[in-house]
Amino acid sequence: MDSPVVWFPQICEATCEMPRLAALDVLDSLSDEAFSKEYAARSMPFLLRLGALKFSEAEILGLLQGAYGDQTVNVRFGNMADPGSYLNRREEEMPLRNFIGEHFMQVNDAGTAYAAGTVIPVEMARDLGVSFPIFYPEYFFNEPRMWMGKKGTVTALHKDIPDNFSFAYFGAKEWLLYPPADFPYLYMIHPNPNALPDFGVSMVNAKSPDATRFPEFSKATPISITQRAGDLLYVPAGWSHFVENHEDSLMINFWLRRGRSPAVLGRDR
């Protein structure tokens, strides 16, 4: 099963009695049982430090430009912190080596070009030394996706549909995570008729909120976490998030298939 359904009201109901987190758990290890009982079933995000990576940043850029240089990536242009720019962004498909050479390696292109959300072959992720998260069988997941951008590139405040596992390969990025209970204060809209039902984008610029236009936004209390190379971040379905690259960054993420998520509703087995 992998069909769109509306889960968000059920997620809110399932989590409304849970205590608000003051900070994310930062872990050095996590068993399958603890993941299922303590985090997935309770809609609790965490950061798991997986340790040393297979390649250096220079080695990975060489691999991407060489063996995978012909891989097509989708590149977003503009100020993605601004919701209007995010929703009406210009996008362009190009070979990965072109993106790296013409945008990622260019000093004067910071914050304007972001290779975001491109589906990549499983073989490419494995060659990078990135495996599917161990907490589920591989067939529970969609194809891996790649996010590559310079310092200053941003993904606007939004909420996705399924549970998300994001692995940072190099660089550092800040996440602002908002629990489902904060949804009434985030001024979310459903962006277009073709978007899946539970996807939403906030009309608030989380970096520079307009208190006059969005007075309720001040009631939202996000958790801030900095993700660095070798960190796996788990973001349960229904948690809204704003993401900013504080350094030139490469991330690969794995979304659970919609028929397997969200775990808090007992859909993870």
From TrEMBL:
Task: Indicate yes or no for the key word Metal-binding.
Answer: yes
One GO molecular function term? metal ion binding
Kindly state which keywords UniProt assigns to this record, in alphabetical order: Iron, Metal-binding, Oxidoreductase
Matching entries from InterPro entries are given as: Cupin_8, JmjC_dom
List each coiled-coil range.
none
**Which Pfam family, an example, fits this chain?**
Cupin_8
Entry keyword annotation includes Nucleotide-binding: no
Domain JmjC, first and last residues per copy: 109-269
Q: Which cofactor does it need?
A: Fe(2+)
Q: Which residues form the signal peptide?
A: none
> Mind telling me which PANTHER family this protein's record contains?
BIFUNCTIONAL PEPTIDASE AND ARGINYL-HYDROXYLASE JMJD5 (PTHR12461:SF106), HYPOXIA-INDUCIBLE FACTOR 1 ALPHA INHIBITOR-RELATED (PTHR12461)
Descriptive protein name? JmjC domain-containing protein
